Amino acid sequence: MIIVPASGETERGLSGSEQQFADMQAYNEEMLKAGVFVDGQGLHPTAKGARVTYEDGDWVVTDGPFAEAKELIAGFTIIDVSSREEALEWLKKWPTSCAPDPGQALELRQVYAPEDFADVLTPEMIEREEQMRAEAARNAAGG
């Protein structure tokens, strides 16, 4: 997963220029053609969000906006590649027009898969996880 940091602009709800959208679309299309693009989405500003914490035995909701933009996420891209090196090569192709603000960075993180927990998940739990992922894919496809 490529995590895109928020900026003052994204927190103000500014979505980017036509050129930035065109550059990002071209990048996503290149990954799609290479068979590595899974998903990618931008996120609304934290003013439209909430944080939910568990405190003293209860859930507490704190409405946005949240103060520190450098710790916030503006979007993500999920790719499916065979190695960390391949992921980094794709990350280095990120459109420069969409580069994070100075002092910020795109972050690369690996998403867990059920097999990563083979030592604690039962075969039934792994099967159920696969069923839930298939159902979620059907829901996302509208069916």
Automatic annotation (TrEMBL):
Residue ranges of every copy of the YCII-related domain listed in the record: 14-96
Gene3D superfamilies in alphabetical order: Dimeric alpha+beta barrel (3.30.70.1060)
A Pfam family: YCII
Cross-referenced InterPro entries: Dimeric_a/b-barrel (IPR011008), YCII (IPR005545)
Similarity comment text for this entry: Belongs to the YciI family.
Protein name: YciI family protein
Organism in which the protein naturally occurs: Terrabacter terrigena
